Amino acid sequence: MYIQDKTYLALISREEKDLSMRFYVPTDIYVEKDCVKNHAQNLLAIGKHAFIMTGKTSAKKNGSLNDVIAVLDAGHVPYQVFDQVEENPSTDTVGNAAQQAREFGADYIIGIGGGSAIDAAKAAALLLANPNVLADNLHKAPEKPLNHVPVVAVPTTCGTGSEATPVAIITNHKIHLKKSIPHRIFPALALVDGKYLASAKKTLIINTAVDALSHMVESILNIYSNAFNRMCPEYGLKLWGELKDVLLSDAPIDESLYEKLMLTSTIAGMSIAHTSTTVPHGMSYDLTLNQGTPHGPAVGYFLAGYVDVCEKKVPEDVKRILTLLGLKSTADFSEMLDKLIGKCKVSREMRDQFAAAMKVNRSKLDLVPGGMTPEEVDSIYEKSLTLE
Ligand code: NAP
Ligand code: ZN
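That is the input. Now the predicted structure with zinc ion docked in place:
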């Protein structure tokens, strides 16, 4: 029985739950320099007609698109490129991509880019296999699990870990909603190469690394955390702790660290693949939707407030997180995040609106160890957002 099956979890006691552990990341993941070229055969074995999804420019600039195309050309696999995935991809974009992929006769999808391109590739893979599902209905729970065509993920940011999660976060502008779709789509293959970070500005690396940090912290401060799945965030937080001084310094990031940044992000993805994200992610979506805040900082603004609230509930877990990061206190944790991403300003009206929505967001609140009161939700918003 899968650990995230809530009906099952509701029926068993806490002790039994602790014994009910499963580790499940079915993606074939390679983390190494030149891994697209090195694992060309794995890529070619996935299908016969490839549909490639990327953002507008970065995959062309950082060499990832060329690397994939070189493998497909050498293997005589026909492909079509869709380079219109925007940040925080929309149902419209995903629907258009799936339509083009269908007309092309694609039997698999390769997502190259940050979380946006990979998530869009996952959602398009679902639509491609289910012609009756409309993109506008992607957020509706299906009556039974739906199939999807295989997805290959080539990440070029070091934050979302989407290459190792079953999650796709899609925005439906018609109903003003940014949320994960209720379908589990693990990529079949993930080719993770740190060299694609060479073209990334330090701000992008910091922003996405803060996302990876949040994934690991939220995975531990989570009711689904257990000894088995904790292996990932515990190891990843140690790596993140070793990277933090470089992230905090004004100096450019040495290329020798790119692989470690990517590895940490993939491990952080594996962490949330078992537990899902919790309150800081739930709070971030409104901020991104209403103010266009990039995903990493949008989550990071709420992270210290979440850790503060959880310190009262699960002090040993918070202590462990701080130790792994090489920090002494929650105040140090908060100061570190301030230095990395600064503060976020919103109007009082906006903040009250966000808080009201979060207080009824059971899908995230129910994951907090010991639960979360409306007052605790308010305290996180007060700590995290400054008023204009
Ligand atoms: P992103 O939205 O994919 O990309 C942000 C920007 O970075 C884009 O302008 C992109 O340019 C550029 N970029 C990407 N790689 C680059 C590189 N190597 N060098 C220079 N620029 C580069 O950012 P992200 O933070 O990786 O993804 C955020 C999305 O993922 C959000 O929608 C978030 O909700 C979602 N997410 C998903 C999961 C999951 O498990 N599936 C987890 C957390 C977050 P182009 O547009 O030109 O490519
Ligand atoms: Zn995230």
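DSSP finds 18 helices and ten strands in the chain.
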